[in-house]
Amino acid sequence: MRAMRFASLCSFVFALLFTLASTAEAAPRWVDRAQTLPKYVFEGNAGLGIGHSSFRNGNGSLNGPGLNLEGAFGITDSVEVGLRTGVRMGNEARALQADYYGRTLWTETYGTGISTAANPEARVRWSFYSGRVAEIGLDARLYLPFESGTRIGAMIGVPFTFHVADFLRIDTGAYVPLVFYDDAFFAITVPAYFWFQATERFFIGPMASLRYLDPGPGPGDSALLLGVGMGYQVASAVDLKWWFLMPNVNEGGGIRSFGGGFGVGFRIGE
Question: I want to staple 99 with a disulfide (CB 3.0 to 4.6 A). Which of 62, 66, 143, 164 is the partner?
């Protein structure tokens, strides 16, 4: 009940901001947007995701919804700060960490547990090189252990963005998350998103992430994430976003997991 009241309040706040954003000046097309927000521009994202896991040995399945909430602010034209959290609605959603599926168009989430409210993730991104075709940045994230049984963690990344011709943007890079459990969790991950601007307002593209995961005890393992995302710039500074995701296509143990999400993103101050 408390989680539902929290979700309702957050939904009201984001609806109010959505209304304000709809009167703002138009944001650039998706493929033309930079790695960081412009100076003094706020961007909010609210997403609803539904996760699913089934067990091939006939022991049933899990299904549950989760809400993702995040905001970011441009300190300068090349430095952006942000904060993210989530809400899981029900026991199955907690087990699935279903808020992850509401984090539309971003695949790298670590350092969370299975409580109703997800650990906050604070971040700062600096785009230190911005050319006509390529952008290179530094991305630092801190996981705050509010959830029971979790520990503090961090992730360092080097994002690359390529603007190809007038119709394609490629977001990739290398990220290293580290969570300080007694046996530390460590990973190396390389996401890649290929965004095609099909029309002035609509974009679509495949998403992937190649990962090496080391949970601490025992050997490490590789994982491949695959999915597809899309969006539509429905108003001057408002985007609608959808995605479908298979977080580990080579998942073992007789488990098959997938999920999808829908989100709203808005910008204020552009």
Answer: 66
Query: Residue 160 sits in a domain of what CATH number?
Result: 2.40.160.40
- Supply the pTM of this predicted model: 0.89
Q: What is the pLDDT of residues 190-222, one digit of tens each?
A: 999 999 999 999 999 999 999 999 987 777 889
The enclosing H or E element of 3 equals helix 2-21
DSSP assignment of 136-191 equals EEEEEEEE---STT---EEEEEEEEEEEETTTEEEEEEEEEEEE-SSS-EEEEEEE
Give residue 34's domain range.
2-268
DSSP label of 67: E
Number of domains into which the chain is organized: 1
Report the C-alpha gap between 246 and 52 in whole angstroms. 10
